[in-house]
Amino acid sequence: MSDAYLSLEKLTLAYGDTVAVGNLDLDIGKGELIALLGPSGCGKTTTMRAIAGLLPVKSGHIRLDGTDMTRTPPNKRAVGLVFQSYALFPHLSVYENVAFGLKLKGMRGSELDQKVRGGLTSVGLSSFADRKPAELSGGQQQRVALARSMVMEPKVLLLDEPLSNLDARLRLEMRTELQRVQKETGVTMIFVTHDQTEALSLADRIVVMKNGAIEQIGTPEDIYNRPASAFVADFVGFENIFALDQGKLKTEHGLADPSGALPGEALSAAGLAWRPRMVTLGSGPFRGTVRGTSFAGDRREYLLASDLGPIKAEVDASEPVHAPDAEIAFDLPAAKAAPLKRFA
Ligand SMILES: Nc1ncnc2c1ncn2[C@@H]1O[C@H](COP(=O)(O)OP(=O)(O)O)[C@@H](O)[C@H]1O
Ligand SMILES: [Mg+2]
């Protein structure tokens, strides 16, 4: 096998007879921050639960740090799990919440005290030790949950949509915080999210999942700029996606010639995709009718009806405004398109 720190090998997970994750292979390096990204129901939580030992494995293996732990009980795995709901003990102080797991392991006295205080310091909560969870904000509660997991010194820390209960500003703050804690401690982290921005900004590598299988693995740049399939392209904001048939765009009204020569790698592609801002408005070989427009601060978005089907375009708000029902020329420059290896 590879020198991966955590390996999922042909992992199949099921609820009764219903397979939720099928034949999943994934190697994760020590100290990596991996984001599992995908729509609701694609199997992210199921995968996390199996790694944590909370869901029996139907077939396949989980290896961590050289040991097969497919059948190891959860408390013997050195895997930490932080959920979306913080699940703190409401009647215990912040200090006691963080100390809880360490005490269960038999830790006492000054060693315990040092660990707990260190954990609270690392998440910026040292002056909140005596508070009860109800006296903290959502973001602070999530920090306690993070400290509580980190003091156990897990080999892998799993975070299942830990920020989705927080408001936008706190989410951004916690994102930075998580990244800092991860870089400082070097803990291997798997972070589950259905929010592409969160995955792009946090992860070393992103694993995009669809229907219980991996659709693409890559760096944030790979996923954002070089989506492998129409599914990934759509998920990361390419809104103009066409299948290719013998070098032509497949549209609702038959095949259309792309504009300009296809780049080399696109010749064998199954499809081409353009972000709205890759569309040229006001010139080009295609014609569209403005069906909708929306102002987005520095940008303006247009929905066009065209012979190619509906087209989403986004231009600088300082450009001339096109009125509803106006007919305008547009271009989908082949040179700018992201080639898709798979179309399904
Ligand atoms: N306890 C359960 N019993 C039966 N099916 C479940 C259970 N939990 C999840 N599933 C199903 O397994 C699939 C994957 O779910 P899940 O891993 O929770 O997705 P995600 O976390 O990506 O939203 C879904 O189709 C879901 O309906
Ligand atoms: Mg989930």
TrEMBL record:
Gene3D superfamilies per UniProt: P-loop containing nucleotide triphosphate hydrolases (3.40.50.300)
GO molecular function annotations of the record: ABC-type transporter activity; ATP binding; ATP hydrolysis activity
Gene Ontology CC annotation, any one: ATP-binding cassette (ABC) transporter complex
Subcellular location: Cell inner membrane
Primary location class: membrane
Pfam families, per database record: ABC_tran (PF00005)
Highest taxon, organism lineage: Bacteria
Domain ABC transporter residue range list: 6-236
First and last residue of the signal peptide: none
Lipid bilayer topology: Peripheral membrane protein
Name assigned to this protein: Putative spermidine/putrescine transport system ATP-binding protein
Organism: Neorhizobium alkalisoli
Species lineage: Bacteria, Pseudomonadati, Pseudomonadota, Alphaproteobacteria, Hyphomicrobiales
